């Protein structure tokens, strides 16, 4: 069953060490070692999750992490190298084996593609590989599960309780705006509704809008966005802050003209996505109308293990405004 992960302790016949059987989000039963010293995150969402729960076992980051972002992380995770990305298009099985992980962790969308990836990765590398459900609602359960697997129960309980508090924050009553979320330096790559990228909006009762098409991200134009007429626009690229201010074409879009076009904070990781991991809890709280200064400081300390300096907090919150239309 998707989202169901069961931990069962059993005795290895070959010795006295204990191992665990994990039924992951794909329904696969995966035996994993009891003592896990090295974990390889399959992609960026798994890396953020693992860095929060058990940074000391993390082998590295499967995607580039900027120096600005690293400066806002705990020293232990900030210094980790970049490693091969299992969820990319390249076959990196040999490179993965060379790193000698005890466990490969994937986290995110439970789809046929990623279910197959977990299965084939384990077959090709001989390394236990699990996929955990990345939905927002499942974060407390998943954090506790991972903490149990890695024997980090206390840390996991702290994070799970924090996640439950953020998930329980009330959204503005009776407010169901139409929101368009876009990536790219030109703001014209629009996220589709019903995806993990726009899940924050769905949970708030907002309606994500995008041009017709296939896939998670769809190419668009200013004319098409104007026709969609969103109440709120949220961009992921900081350069869009200047673009919309100096573009007559963008100012013809109602949300921009009315001052409801925002750039989501992105350090050390995106508040709405990039990657779609536990960092989205911060975006959920921000879009619920909570005070971003307090939340940004607290979240960074609790989840990322680094207390922001005043200057770093100013950098994170540069240009952040109210998301309410």
Describe the protein.
By secondary structure, the chain is α/β, with parallel strands linked by helices. The protein folds into 2 domains: 7-167, Rossmann fold; 178-316, Nitrogenase molybdenum iron protein domain (Rossmann fold), CATH 3.40.50. The protein has helices at 44-53, 67-70, 75-78, 93-99, 112-125, 139-149, 153-167, 199-204, 222-228, 240-245, 248-251, 254-257, 280-287, 292-303, 310-316; strands at 7-11, 18-23, 29-33, 39-41, 103-108, 129-133, 178-183, 189-191, 207-208, 217-219, 232-235, 261-263. The strands form 3 sheets. Strands 7, 8, 9, 10, 11 and 12 form a 6-stranded mixed sheet that branches. The protein has a 3-stranded antiparallel sheet with strand order 1-2-3, with helices on one face. It is globular, with a radius of gyration of 20 Å. The two termini are 39 Å apart. The relative contact order is 0.13. The model is unreliable at 1-18 (pLDDT under 50).
Instruction: Return Rg in Å.
Output: 20 Å
Biggest sheet architecture: 6 strands, mixed
- Treating each run of at least 4 consecutive H or I residues as one helix, how many helices? 15
CATH class of the largest domain: Alpha Beta
Strand content: 15-25%
Mean pLDDT: 90
- The CATH superfamily of the largest domain bears the name Nitrogenase molybdenum iron protein domain
Total individual domains: 2
Number of strands: 12
Set out the fold topology.
Blueprint (H helix, E strand, L loop, with lengths): L6 E5 L6 E6 L5 E5 L5 E3 L2 H10 L13 H4 L4 H4 L14 H7 L3 E6 L3 H14 L3 E5 L5 H11 L3 H15 L10 E6 L5 E3 L7 H6 L2 E2 L8 E3 L2 H7 L3 E4 L4 H6 L2 H4 L2 H4 L3 E3 L16 H8 L4 H12 L6 H7 L9
Parallel strand pairs: 4-5, 5-6, 7-9, 7-11, 11-12
Antiparallel strand pairs: 1-2, 2-3, 7-8, 8-10
Helix pairs in contact: 6-7
């Amino acid at each position: 069953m998707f989202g169901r992960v069961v931990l069962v302790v059993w005795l290895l016949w070959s010795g006295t060490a204990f191992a665990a059987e994990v039924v992951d989000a794909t329904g696969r039963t995966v035996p994993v070692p009891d003592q896990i010293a090295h974990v390889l995150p399959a992609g960026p969402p798994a890396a953020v999750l693992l860095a929060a729960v058990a940074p000391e076992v993390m082998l590295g980051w499967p995607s580039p992490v900027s120096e600005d972002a690293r400066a806002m992380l705990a020293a232990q995770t900030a210094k980790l190298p970049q490693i091969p990305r299992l969820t990319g298009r390249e076959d990196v099985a040999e490179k993965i084996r060379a790193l000698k992980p005890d466990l490969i962790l994937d986290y995110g969308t439970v789809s046929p593609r990623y279910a197959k990836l977990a299965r084939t990765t384990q077959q090709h590398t001989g390394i236990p590989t699990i996929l955990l459900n990345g939905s927002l609602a499942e974060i407390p359960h998943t954090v506790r599960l991972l903490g149990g697997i890695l024997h980090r129960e206390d840390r996991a309980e702290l994070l799970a309780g924090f996640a439950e508090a953020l998930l329980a924050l009330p959204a503005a009553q009776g407010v169901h705006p139409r929101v368009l979320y876009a990536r790219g330096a030109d703001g014209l790559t629009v996220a589709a509704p019903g995806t993990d990228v726009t899940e924050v909006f769905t949970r708030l009762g907002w309606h994500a809008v995008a041009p017709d098409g296939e896939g998670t991200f769809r190419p668009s134009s200013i004319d098409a966005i104007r026709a969609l007429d969103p109440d709120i626009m949220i961009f992921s690229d900081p350069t869009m802050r200047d673009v919309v201010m100096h573009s007559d074409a963008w100012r013809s879009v109602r949300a921009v003209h009315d001052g409801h076009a925002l750039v989501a904070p992105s350090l050390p990781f995106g508040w709405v996505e990039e990657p779609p991991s536990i960092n989205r809890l911060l975006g959920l709280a921000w879009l619920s109308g909570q005070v971003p200064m307090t939340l940004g400081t607290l979240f960074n300390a609790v989840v990322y293990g680094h207390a922001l300096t005043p200057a770093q907090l100013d950098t994170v919150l540069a240009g952040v405004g109210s998301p309410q239309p």
